[in-house]
Structure formats: C-alpha cells, structure tokens
Design a protein that fits this description.
Elements (H helix, E strand, L loop, with lengths): L1 H9 L17 E4 L3 E2 L5 E5 L8 E6 L2 E4 L2 E4 L3 E9 L6 E8 L9 E6 L5 E6 L6 E7 L2 E7 L4 E8 L2 E9 L3 E4 L5 E7 L6 E7 L5 E4 L7 E5 L8 E6 L5 H4 L3 E6 L5 E7 L6 E9 L2 E8 L2 E8 L2 E9 L6 E6 L2 E6 L5 E8 L2
Antiparallel strand pairs: 1-29, 2-29, 3-4, 4-5, 5-6, 7-8, 8-9, 9-10, 11-12, 12-13, 13-14, 15-16, 16-17, 17-18, 19-20, 20-21, 21-22, 23-24, 24-25, 25-26, 27-28, 28-29
Amino acid sequence: MTELLLLLACAPDPAPAPVALGAGGTPQVVLGAAIPWEDATAVAVADVDGDGEQERYRVLDSVLYGPHGTHPLQGAWQKAVAFPLDGGSHEELFFATGTGVKHRDSPVRVYQASEASPALLWERDGSRDQLTDLREVDGRLWLAAFEDTWQVSGGWLDREGFQEVSRARMAMAQLPLRDGRVVQGRLYGQQPKSDGSLVVHEANGEERPLSGRRGVRSIGAGDLDADGHVDLLVADGWHYAYGEHGLARLGLYLGPDFTDARTLAVLPRDYAINNIELATLAGRPLVLLSGSHTVQLLSQDDLGWRLTHVSDIRETDQAVFRRTSDGVSVLVSGDPAIERAVSLDVQ
C-alpha cells in the first residue's frame, strides 16, 4: 500500500483537456471566391441610384469608367470617397486627380460625380499638385493637399471653396474630429529623411504628440470598442529606405484622448499600409488594409483580431469595401480587378 501511495504522489498531473480555440461563439470571417471583373488601375464605389447597392467605378488608361458612361481624366487618379446625400439613400462619388507619371503638369482637381457626368468642384495649381487625403466626415468633405514642396494643408471643401483648418510639414494623413481637433499623420519629420510622427493638433493650436513607430502613411477612424468615442487606426512604420526598413504596422489608439495605444497587426510581406477602410457586417467591425504588396482583412475573433489574406497586388493597386445587396464585398484593382464577398461563418 505504501508503495502504491508513493507512485500516485509522484505521478505527473494529467494533461489538461484541449481548448477549442475559436469555439467561443465569435463568428469567423469567410471570403468568397475571387470573381474577375475588368482591368483597372484604381477602383471606387458609390450608390448613385439609391438602390442600396454601391455601383462600381474603375480607372484604366486615364479614363474613368462608371455606371453612366466614361469620363477622360485630365490628371492622375489620386483619391476617391463615396459621399452620402441628404437622407443617406443616395451617394455621390467625389474623386481627385493631379500630378502623375503621365500628367506632370496637371493641377489638383476635385470632381463630383452622381448619375450625371462628373463636374469640377475645385482646382488648385501649385508647386506640388498632390492630394493626399479625401474623406467624408459628418456630412462634410475633408481634404489634405500639398501647399508647396513640404507643407500639407487640410480643411473643408464645399461649393464656396476650400477652408484651411490645419497645416504641417508632410502631414499627408489628416483626420478632423468633432471637437475641433485634427489628427495629423506626418510621413517625415522636420529634417529630410527623419522619422515622421502622429500628432494631435488641438483646437487651441497646441500640438500633442502620440506614441508610434516612425512615419504615418494612413489613418482610419471608428468606434471599435463601442464606448461612444472615436478610435484611431494608424498605419505607421514608414522609413525613407522603405524597401529595406519599412514596417507595415497598424496601431489602435482608443478615444477620446488616444493615450491607450496598442499594435493590432503587422503585415509581414508589406513595407507600408497605404489605405485603411472600415465597414460593419452584422454589427461587427471589419478593417480593410491595402498594403504595398497584399490586401488584408482584419476582423475580431475569440483571441482578439485576426488577418485574412484577400489578394496579392501591385504597389500601385488598392482595395475598397463595397456595399451589396448581400452585405459587404471587397473590390481590388488589378489585371483584372477582382471582387470577393465577405460573410460570417456562425458556428
């Protein structure tokens, strides 16, 4: 009996039962097959007819192809955003063109497109004709564009013209907040090739730097933790020797003061995240990341956040969310452009 008790005392603890990760009830994101479309160097979407499904636009050889015909572009395609009209049942597409490889002397132009042909809304001819940010914020149109070689000005655009709100050196990503603050993502610092930063430009004119990793490439925003405050999604890690030292990092900064910061994802095959888009599916947030070489979809799971590979791309390609009759899809430019439906696999 004594020997039996000794054997039991010395026996190792039984192995714990395996835990089924992902079995906690969080629906997993599932991507449909890649459906080829037409060739496109850029893509955009807007629900111009108000049927609840966003129409597709594509750019190829300096021509914009849309649901109501074609429009020759007088400059290189730069940015686009779907803008909701009164009541939200219809959208217009605002897009910007400017200097590019085949358009060395083209000024920055912003167009407004609905069911009619695109109409010129604003134009500026400067020493560096590049628009770097274009977004809809609370029913208003915000843009950021180079004022000269280094300075980027951000402000509101309407039929009366452009009203500047903020300006900073290489602040190519800018996000205005409801309380008058502007979040500036600076690609470089004050000296050539120096690291950029993330800065909150306070309503009183003061600047408050936030923690981060080098230069900022793009900024997204949404209430990801459902606490009523806007949270920031920031793509930083930019380095002047981007091919060798660039880091495609996505950081989350929780509002309202953005001091609670954490890394959500790093894209291992990319040196930068060039664009961030947010959408919701069945009440759950989705984040679309257009990297330098891949498109990735970020979604929540039982362990936090997970990346799902959408497509490989060229460095000049980009992707957008598209609202469809079935929910949400991802539209990616390329030869050909592709579209993949997004759904949730509820176990």
